[in-house]
From TrEMBL:
The name this protein goes by in its record: Acetolactate synthase
Native source organism of the sequence: Sphingobium xenophagum
Source species taxonomy: Bacteria, Pseudomonadati, Pseudomonadota, Alphaproteobacteria, Sphingomonadales
Domain Thiamine pyrophosphate enzyme central: 194-330
Catalytic activity reported: 2 pyruvate + H(+) = (2S)-2-acetolactate + CO2
Gene3D superfamilies for the chain: 3.40.50.970, TPP-binding domain (3.40.50.1220)
Length: 583
């Protein structure tokens, strides 16, 4: 076997593993790797403007394609700039490989120029991480890293490579398939758990499917199987923010999203159900509300590939550790084998119909301002009319919740948002990554005027690679969700939540070579959105919406599902100090 440099070994591994795109930013500690990439044009390198942008692009690429995202950054500040995106990927279970440069091994621990303890810094925000000190071990590490990132509960893995290891040589032979001694995710469910879940589902009078991002992470088959099992049982389906698209929004069985800004019917159905089948969700605090009042009279089945997520927050009656697709397939097979028929759930659906009459997503229009909910609804209608495959990303804030409420998702991997970490600055680079991975699709980022500025420099990336992403900004001149919480918790004292020096987004877009559009009147909304969708190349839209609109319905922190707020007039200064601590 011919000797290769560590940098060449790394690039050969990426090629062998099928990597097509790398998002990165060069620096001194990774120059040998960049030189190796120069000779391997089969890998497309996307030059970002900030390392955080690289990680979010890799997330968007991974979530929209099902392939792991790959990031390449330098040592020190390059690595630390990537930490937010790494943590975001860990929280939302996104497969990502982050390759970081490091100072030469003999300088580690000397406070050398651009040195940081990358392994120590990322130990608690990665699924696993490595410091590679021997070029002969690099190939095995890279292949193992991809295996760990993409199997079990997906997540980010960091590979830290000192510069002298990149230069040193070693023989390269493609490793055998990884058989890790201790890391063996459980894919197949225990038969007893499947048996119990099926019989409980068949006997339930008020069942509900509570679904999450794990359904989507499991792959397209899991979404198809969820739809099949829901059809067999006739039970209602709700979802977390991360699970939108796993079940079609157009279905009569769909109750909408649940949780803090979920629908009235979804939250009440969860509260009153006699059986909750949790599929790939984790009972997080934004879903459960006050724990002692969460679904008090229900039995609970929890399907999750991550053992640590089961019984962590809510105790369940049946725990099924398995891949979602595998478990659902087993449940469907057993349901059919035993000849179970769809139960009469008419009384349950009658109660749900009553809750639906609340029309919790309704909003009032005044004719003089663009309501943000209307902007999202019109965007959805216009996207449907194009007939194109549309991928929606969001930043974090009110606009994110309005998008989740008013944009209907029919398929998985079309809704990309930051859930667990709630990262402002995620959505725009994620749209770039999704567009790069899906060149025939239409990637649209729904953003707020505050959060979009976190990584707005990535407009240059979209321009350089001629990516026709669309940036749709709901501009209310506030950090909207912060302002809403200040109304709830601090008697509307708007401390530093107003943006009084916003850029001219249209001129900013033009400076980057984008098309800029401004929409200020309700009557111009439809035409402005149509112009955005019909314009080739990247487009930024400054959509001026009602400044003081709030996101409803809402369950305040520390409240129960049965204490949903529907009336915006309820909002001013109602929360206790104890509840404020949970915001």
């Amino acid at each position: 076997m011919a000797e290769k440099s560590g940098a060449d070994i790394l690039v050969e591994c990426l090629i062998d593993l099928g990597v097509e795109v790398v998002f990165g930013y060069p620096g001194g500690a990774v120059l040998p790797i960049y030189d190796a990439l120069y000779n391997h044009p089969t890998i497309k390198h996307v030059l970002v403007r900030h390392e955080q942008g690289a990680t979010h692009m890799a997330e968007g690429y991974a979530r929209s394609t099902g392939k792991p995202g790959v990031v390449l950054v330098t040592s020190g500040p390059g690595a630390t700039n990537a930490v937010t995106g790494i943590t975001d990927a860990l929280m939302d279970s996104i497969p990502m490989i982050v390759i970081t440069g490091q100072v030469p091994t003999q300088l580690i621990g000397t406070d050398a120029f651009q040195e940081a303890d990358t392994v120590g810094i990322t130990r608690h925000c990665t699924k696993h991480n490595y410091l590679v000190k021997d070029p002969g071990k690099l190939a095995g590490v890279v292949h193992e890293a991809f295996h760990i990132a993409t199997t079990g509960r997906p997540g980010p893995v960091v590979i830290d490579i000192p510069k002298n290891v990149q230069i040193a040589t070693a023989p390269y032979k493609r490793p055998e398939p990884v058989q890790h001694a201790s890391y063996r995710p459980q894919i197949k469910a225990d038969a007893a758990g499947i048996d119990a879940a099926v019989e409980m589902l068949a006997a339930a009078e008020r069942p509900i499917f509570y679904t999450g991002g794990g359904v989507i992470n499991s792959g397209p088959q899991a979404s198809a199987l969820l739809r099949e099992l829901a059809a067999l049982t006739g039970a209602p389906v709700t979802s977390t923010l991360m699970g939108l698209g796993a079940f079609p929004a157009s279905s009569d069985q769909w109750l909408g999203m649940l949780g803090m800004h979920g629908t009235y019917e979804a939250n009440w159905a969860m509260n009153q159900a006699d059986l909750i089948l949790c599929v790939g969700a984790r009972f997080d605090d934004r879903v459960t509300g006050r724990l002692d009042a969460f679904a008090p009279n229900s039995r609970k089945v929890h399907i999750d590939i991550d053992r640590s997520s089961i019984n962590k927050i809510v105790d369940v009656d049946v725990a099924i550790q398995a891949d979602v697709a595998s478990a659902l397939d087993d449940m469907i097979a057993l349901w059919k084998q035993r000849g179970h028929e769809q139960a009469d759930l008419s009384a349950w659906w009658d109660r749900i119909a009553e809750w639906r009459t609340k029309k919790s997503l309704a909003y009032v229009e005044n004719g003089t301002e663009i309501m943000p909910q209307r902007a999202i609804a019109d965007l959805y209608t216009a996207c449907q009319a194009t007939g194109k495959d549309v991928i929606i990303t969001t930043e974090v804030g009110q606009h994110q919740m309005w998008a989740a409420q008013h944009f209907g998702f029919e398929a998985p991997n079309k809704w990309l948002t930051s859930g667990g970490l709630g990262t402002m600055g995620y959505g725009f680079p994620a749209a770039i990554g999704a567009q790069m991975g899906n060149p025939d699709s239409l990637a649209i980022c729904i953003a707020g005027d505050a959060s979009v500025q976190m990584n707005i420099q990535e407009m240059g990336t979209a321009s350089q690679y001629r990516l026709p992403v669309k940036l749709f900004i709901l501009n209310n001149e506030y950090m909207g969700m912060v302002r809403q919480w200040q109304e709830l918790t601090y008697e509307s004292r708007y401390s530093n939540s107003y943006s009084d020096s916003l850029p001219d987004f249209v001129k900013l877009g033009e400076a980057y070579g984008w098309t800029g559009i401004r929409i200020e009147e309700p009557g111009d909304l439809e035409a402005g959105i149509r112009q955005m969708l019909e314009t080739p190349g990247p487009v930024i839209v400054d959509c001026r919406v009602a400044k003081l609109s709030n996101c409803f319905p809402m369950i305040p922190s520390g409240a129960a599902h049965t204490e949903m707020m529907l009336d915006p007039n309820q909002i001013a200064g109602i929360m206790s100090d104890e509840a404020k601590a949970l915001v």
